[in-house]
Amino acid sequence: MKRGLTTALLLGLVLPLAILPAQAQRRGAPAGPPNPFAGNSQAIAQGEQVYNQNCTSCHGPNGGAGEIGPEIVHNLSVPLRGELNDEQILDVIRNGAPGTVMPAWKGKLADDDILRIGAFLHSLRGTAIDNPLAGNVAHGEEIFWGNGQCGSCHMLGGKGALKGPDLTNVAAEYKSNLIVDALTKPNHRIFGDGGVHLRALPAMDTYDAVHVTLNNGRTVDGVLLNQDSYSLQLMGDDNQLHLLDRSQVKAVVNKPPLMPTDYDKRLTKEEFADLMAFLTRQGRKAPATVSAPRNADPD
Ligand code: HEC
Ligand code: HEC
Question: Which domain CATH number covers 6?
Fold first, then answer.
């Protein structure tokens, strides 16, 4: 059945974008209500105290790695993707990490104190949106859609293309220096420095540029969005989604990455600064999100 269907799809039928893959979902749990203590400097200071009393012994100060516990806050050029989001962090603090020495703090600490720790950790993890760069934002937006041609590959605010990650929330996901890296360093996809603890390996197999040859001689060029043993999903250079049945695929050849990494040279200094001013404001200013504690009483 499944194979019949995918074969049918192969016959030139292009899927609507509605079924676009788990890409977006992989980005993290849906946002819950805001952490009431987020951005509150007094609560953050209290959170730091509670953290220092209970957590530094394993995790080290300021969320850096300790002898026993992993790093919670990355100071290095490591993307936040793969890192736990605020909500997941609170979940681990409340419920512990079963099978490890990471205790469940629910019951040992007041939930407000857990939320304060969450606000403290969030303040350390501050992404671009918490500290946007200076420049002419409107001009930066022009560069994004114009000179920079970012929109020919990226979506932003529901506009653009899908050959690269959606940048609508980029400033809430990355620190500013990481956005600069993405635009200027060929190796910006280095996800760890050896000491970094990532819960889930980032999706390194997405957005690979490929040239696919089918048994019937047809070729498709595009970006690999997803694959399993039966099929390949490609965002084609024609900006159409292609679902290819593996049994029809003769060869898949990798091409160099699509993302240009010389924007510091393609753009003038001023244009680059303005683009960064624009990018570091794209996103939902993240009030640290929280979920209701698990097993919470309905009332
Ligand atoms: C006895 C040592 C210990 C103490 C004390 C401890 N932790 Fe942990 N913590 C760990 C270990 C070990 C892990 C890794 C668990 C795993 O591998 O999944 C961890 C994991 C975590 C994670 C998940 C990190 C990630 O990216 O996967 C968070 C968040 C965290 N701890 C926060 C805290 C906070 C906040 C406190 C204090 C309230 C605390 N921990 C106290 C040992 C500890
Ligand atoms: C020809 C297509 C293309 C163009 C043009 C392009 N990008 Fe990209 N971009 C990609 C692809 C594909 C990726 C994902 C793979 C990678 O990181 O190399 C990416 C990755 C990124 C990332 C990292 C995002 C993440 O979640 O990992 C940022 C930020 C980014 N691009 C911003 C920009 C900006 C800003 C511009 C315009 C100045 C731009 N890109 C132009 C294709 C493109």
Answer: 2.30.30.100
Among 112, 130, 148, the domain boundary falls at: 130
Answer yes or no: is the C-beta of 93 below 6 A from any ligand 1 atom.
yes
Three-state DSSP at 109 gives strand
CB 239 near ligand 2, within 6 Å: no
Query: What is the tally of structural domains in the chain?
Result: 2
For ligand 1, the distance from its centroid to the CA atom of residue 104, given in whole angstroms, is 9
Nearest to 165 by CA among 220, 204, 210: 204
Predicted confidence band of residue 16 (pLDDT cuts 50, 70, 90):
very low
Write down the pLDDT at residue 246. Answer: 93
Which of 37, 53, 58 for mutating ligand 1's site (highest number of atoms within 8 Å of CB)?
58
pLDDT, tens digit, 9 for 90 and up, residues 215-270 = 999 999 999 888 888 999 999 999 899 999 999 999 999 888 888 989 999 999 99
